[in-house]
Structure to design on (224 residues):
């Protein structure tokens, strides 16, 4: 079945460090891929998405490229800030109406000044 | 435009008690979902409703029931709460194949 595997945390970085959170997926067909962010005490918010191979999603300095050959969608940011501290979830959907979304287990990021 | 709203925000139950978690969305979305979030396990789908009048089981439906009351509202019921149902519950909605929008969550403790 469909699934998402993402890098386990927690991850602790100093401010302005480079961030990579790995995500790989298993799915039939051509799923859409997402990164969600969850700040403490809140629900998940969409960070970025990509709907076809080689697409790059980007938002707030974060980027991820849909790599079908490696079935990956790694999240990167060149210079993290304290305000980026949150839990990040990789997810996929098959893109059918009413379909299910599959989430990774989440990676907790803490950025220290 | 409030998005996805959930009530209550916090709840403490005793084992065996029942309760209903309410969810509503004002974005005219067809599909709605209930998830639970537990440490180290990410989000697990309990039930979903692809459209008004339909519901389907997700990964962890045991101990729960749902009702899609109308297009806006999707409730989750615990008939006889157990400590294993202590969790954070999120409702989400989506229009077609697009992104999911999440509510703020309900933090449930079962003693």
């Amino acid at each position: 079945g469909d699934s998402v595997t993402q890098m386990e945390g927690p991850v602790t970085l100093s401010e302005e460090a480079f961030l990579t959170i790995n995500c790989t997926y298993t799915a039939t067909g051509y799923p859409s891929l997402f990164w969600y962010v969850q700040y403490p005490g809140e629900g998940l918010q969409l960070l970025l998405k990509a709907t076809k191979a080689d697409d790059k999603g980007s938002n707030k300095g974060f980027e991820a490229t849909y790599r079908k050959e490696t079935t990956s969608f790694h999240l990167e940011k060149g210079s993290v800030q304290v305000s980026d501290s949150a839990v990040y979830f990789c997810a996929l959907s098959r893109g059918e109406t009413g379909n299910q979304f599959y989430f990774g287990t989440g990676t907790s990021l803490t950025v220290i000044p | 435009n409030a998005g996805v709203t959930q009530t209550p925000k916090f709840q403490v139950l005793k084992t065996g008690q029942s309760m209903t978690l309410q969810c509503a969305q004002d974005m005219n979305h067809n599909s709605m979902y209930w998830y639970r979030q537990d440490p180290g396990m990410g989000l697990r789908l309990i039930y979903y409703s692809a459209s008004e009048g339909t519901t389907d089981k997700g990964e962890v439906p045991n101990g729960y029931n749902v009702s899609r009351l109308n297009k806006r509202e999707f409730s989750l019921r615990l008939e006889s709460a157990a400590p294993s149902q202590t969790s954070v519950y999120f409702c989400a909605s989506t229009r077609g194949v697009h992104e999911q929008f999440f509510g703020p969550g309900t933090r449930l403790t079962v003693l």
